[in-house]
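User: 3-oxoacyl-[acyl-carrier protein] reductase, Paenibacillus favisporus:
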Amino acid sequence: MISIDLTGKTALITGASGQLGRVMARTLARAGADVAVHYRGNEQKALELKQEIEALGRRCIAVQADITDAESVTAMKDRLLGEWQAIDIVVANAVIQYEWTSVLDQPAEDYRSQFESCVLQNVLLAKAFIPAMIERKQGRMIGINTECSMQNFPGQSAYVAGKRGMDGVYRVLAKEVGEHNITVNQVAPGWTISDRDRENNTEVSEGYSSSVPLKRRGTDQEIANAVLFLASDLSSFITGAYIPVNGGNVMPAI
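Assistant: Predicted structure for 3-oxoacyl-[acyl-carrier protein] reductase:
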């Protein structure tokens, strides 16, 4: 039997108080990892999640930071490395939300916010946590991208611009740090069912699902499972990958 055991590993998940982030945090904790739960404003949800993880017998730190600000990210790093000495797995999940509209109508500030939360966040996280990974000759950096990066539908421009920029950073970083046994990969969810959908009974969307080869929306747990795989030794020879988890709705081509 093959199982995933992250016992002894530490993980940081940005945006862990959000819809997808909280499931990733629980999943890595259930696999044995100690988890740092990052939040920006939702302290209550982060502290509730911390209690859940500690109830599983794992260590957990709830840490506030602005992931677009270098000083704030450095302060988060100093706290985490001060308490745990090492972060083995970094999951960059946080993103700034905004209202989508056409290129002509989208405020310029939305493009700036997407650059900051999609590109700059990952640069700052890499600068903060990868040097220690290089010293230990091991590490995992996992970014949450999106199927929108391949769709390029009307109204998606700011989000797509940020996430495609993120993709470039990840591909270059994978080549730069691979010699140190550090993998750098991306998970690209489709339109995912989360707790919000379950609470509002909005899990079913026939219009979207009809275009998906598997004829359904994915779940937050299925996204977290992909993150768990990339965090584990089972993915030790995978780096630089953009992995859609969307039932085949988009398919990277050779």
